[in-house]
Amino acid sequence: MKTCIICIGSNHDPVSNIKKAVETLSYLFPDIIWGDTVVTAAEGVSASVPDYHNRAAVFSTNMDVSGLKHRFKEIEKACGRGSDSKSTGIVPLDIDLLQYDGDILKPLDMQKEYVRRALSSLKI
Question: Could you tell me the pLDDT band of residue 37, with boundaries at 50, 70 and 90?
């Protein structure tokens, strides 16, 4: 089994979309442990957009990285994520695989304040 760390975020109907993601991911990965919701302003967008709701989680799986990323894209799409989400700054759901079996996949994301806050709330 591989240990994974993810961070999910939403700034479009965030309560509903985060809830849907938590339910789906908790079903797929029964041992998942969730941190608290962290609400932050959007970073790196020029337009005024709603605040993001973010949550981090840790879980174990036998899936490989590409299988996980594919599954995450399916969940994002089910929550209304489209190809224009990043350019508009309106993101129904974003699921980032930050760490896989000890390998940090997104080192820059791991340094972001909202990710660090979300990770610090994990009870692991």
Answer: very high
